[in-house]
Amino acid sequence: MMEVPVTFVDLDLGRDGRLQHWGAVRGEERRGGGPGEIATLDSFCLESEWVAGHNFFDFDRKHLQRLYPNLGMLNQPALDTLILGPLAFPRRPYHALIKDYRRLASGASDPVMDADRCRVLLRDEWAALQTQPAWMLQLYRWCLEPGVPCGDWGFSLFFERMGVGLLQNQQVPALLQQLPACRRGLAELDPEAERAILPFLLAWLPVADQGIPPAWVRARFPGLSVLIRRLREVNCGAEDCTWCRSTWSAEGQLQHWFDLPSIRPYPAAADGSSLQRTIVVQAMAGQSLLALLPTGAGKSICYQLPALVRYHRRGLLTVVISPLQALMKDQVDGLERRIHLRIGAALHGMLTPPERSEVLEKVRSGEVGLLYVSPEQLRNTSFWKALDLREIAAWVFDEAHCLCTWGHDFRTDYYFASQ
Fold it and tell me: What is the pTM of this model?
């Protein structure tokens, strides 16, 4: 890949939508200029097999087509590192280029430097993709063929150069059955109709319990969340569906996450069944509940286990409102000790600004599946902005007697939880 001539392009536009500066990089060669040197950019790109950029399809190429529709480079095979990012790095996808050359966040961008950062990024994406299974790469190539959304001849050549074969349409359904999702849902999936969002689904499913699809993907393809819900949040009930049989089993999930042999039989309901099991099963199914259990009856498991299951299924966030900061810390630390994963976090007034920023960033990126917050956070703008980037599985009021018995006079901020 690195021996193939690729020209990386980055544009800097003014507020009026006009080109101010451009930068281009190919190997060790660097070019830069303004609108008067656009012919130089075109000639430089035409010396390459590919032209590439970060968000190239929706920004750079789109604006070049608008401003200079007769450029020859617009007909070249193209690559977009933004689209390849979630496929190559599904555990930690990102949207913006890392502009480490800027001293200040508000500093001016350098199109030549940005084009070079894109060059490094594509090299890393190439290396990361080569570690993935061959059948996944074949599906990526099929999804990104020219003529489909996000597709281009550049991607076809990219995967061909990697040694990835071209799939026939009739081969796709059988490969999709290897994905960790409901077998019936996969069988009913129409790959042609979902071709635009399929590559991002393919990349995310194997690492679903380690993050969420990037915000830009979810915003651009709202059907992705619908498809994930259909494939991972609907219990088909079929005996031969390994996914549904495992993820909808309260006992199986308790064993998986907490290494506990069985759900507590007591306290029992009037019919003798386990109240804890009833609560867990209904919460896993997304039901709204008021659970009243005595001290020591395992109330935490009643919301923690469903939270972990729904985070694993779809990357959903469960928000637990708790009035006691010490209790929040104990719950987060205890959860980490028991499941050996750091997907719980607490947000309260005792955190330092750097600690708070770290928690909010983990919430935004999808690293947190269970978030404990004090009632005072309900009036914090940064808290709600972080939540805007996540799908919420449930709101949990821990120690609910503080709310229903002592009410707003105890913690006035509980009022905002009802708004």
Answer: 0.86
